[in-house]
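Retro notes, item 3 of 5
We never archived the inputs for the fructose -6-phosphate complex last cycle. Fixing that now. Sequence and ligand:
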Amino acid sequence: MCGIVGYIGSRDAAPILLNGLKKLEYRGYDSAGVAILDNGNIKVVKCKGRLEKLEEKVNCDAPVGNIGIGHTRWATHGEPNDLNSHPHISSSGKIAVVHNGIIENYLELKEFLAAEGYEFVSDTDTEVVAHLIDYHYHGDIVQAVITSINEIEGSYALGVLCRDYPDKFVAARKDSPLIVGLGNGENFIASDIPAILEYTRDVYILEDKEIVLLSDKEVKVFNNHGLAVQKKVFKVNWDVASAEKAGYEHFMMKEMCEEPKVVRDTVNPRIKDGNIVLDNIRITAEDLKNIRKIFIVACGTAYHAGVVGKYIIEKLARIPVEVDVASEFRYRDPLISDKDLVIIISQSGETIDTLFALRESKKKGARVLSIVNVVGSSIARESDDVLYTWAGPEIAVASTKAYNTQLSALYLIALDFAYKLGRIDRDYYSKVIEELKAVPREIEKVLANRDIIQKFASQHYNAKSIFFIGRGLDYALSMEGSLKLKEISYIHSEAYAGGELKHGTIALIEEGTLVVCPVTQDSLVEKMISNIREVKARGAVVLAIAKESNKQVCKVADVVVTIPDVDSFIAPIVAVTPLQLFAYYMALQKGCDVDKPRNLAKSVTVE
Ligand code: F6R
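Structure as it came back at the time:
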């Protein structure tokens, strides 16, 4: 949530900041701004709205200078308007700040600073930081930032410009991501790697409560006691093109088309001589025997991957699994101990609720294995074991390819645990491995067949409410299909277990109500057919997702989108793609901004 960027070097700062913000817009896009040190004064240009508006403003009256900070906002405190946009500047005009996160004790600090004569012009928590640093500034900006962050409670990634420092600026972080880009005669800060990838592949990944002083030739890192910290350079091994649209109309379509590749990248390197080898995961058969319970904890789409994870781990490894949304888990005093394994799932590796659930689990002694997409992210660094999903950068706000890779990782884990525990035999183990390896080809077929979904969407995009019903793994899949549709098309939708519908919700089905039914579980086909008949009898229009060989469904559903005849057990990795495509085409038909849906941001780094 919110993207921040900073530059110092010999080039004009404004275009570099704007370019970086473009790459970070997925993190928030209700307002944007830059602050540049222009002839000894901090000049701020900011406004409500998308980045194009800021660009127009900057082009009319460009601040000139080669040191600056920028911000693209997802509002938390104060509505999106010009005044609440970042950067915020202290009353003296000496300090400018961009911030991602939430200052929890801002009201207390505001009261104190107001009594000291500071005037507040915005409703944000961030403005407090600008005044607080100003208050503590007595000629040493690093010390002022250190004293300030030691008084701040909450989360932050900060970029700080000081009028008295024409050749340096400062940054700091806690619980919100921030990296430093190391250039040649120039240096950068950013919330995420794509913002600086055009200029350098060498980065420092900052830890909590680290403070950085950047000049064009040097980057010094300190801890919050002011002591120097030695950092390791992290080399980014993916290129700019993977974070660009590459000719696709939307990132979301590009990312769905990448699903075959990223599933292959996630699965194949972990199969060695017919065995699953999970990188550096050090969980032995002995450890597994001692595990009392597995908790899977995540948010949103990653949580839905976890629901599939529960089914498959319980089915194969026969270890009880609880799955929970991170924001609930962390506050419910969960009954976990050192006998439990917690599996954390996160694309960004920075989701604050998930990160805090991880910390809560570790505090209670549990071992934490995380499934993460972003290398070096907070969740990856704080986990005992990490299994990376190799989905590459996911830019569209709605998660697609990351989900397929999260499922792939969960299948690998379920199979590995089950085999180590002796709960499945060699033949079954080898058979499922072969099926997993074939998944990319099956997704390619689904993608090639997408016209039928586009056509259906063009006829039904005016639907007011859509139900997704499924049983077993198809129920887990329905949850994800429903979320995808809601978030990008703004159509109300609910996911129900097929058998549960008649316990209340079927009352909402009337003439013309759209019902989407994944029917990929062979043992549950008959039951689902009954459910389809029940809703059809009440006037529903049914779109089914079924295997090619399933001829029964064609007789009851209005339209059937087929997937290849994959084993029911691994069907979710293939069958989710038609649901993602359905959401995409519905949103497109409605004229929605597919990649940047309203009210959302990609990386939820605030509670
Ligand atoms: C939905 C979506 C969100 C994320 C959720 C968790 O399309 O993207 O629901 O899945 O915010 O994010 P990560 O996986 O980054 O922890």
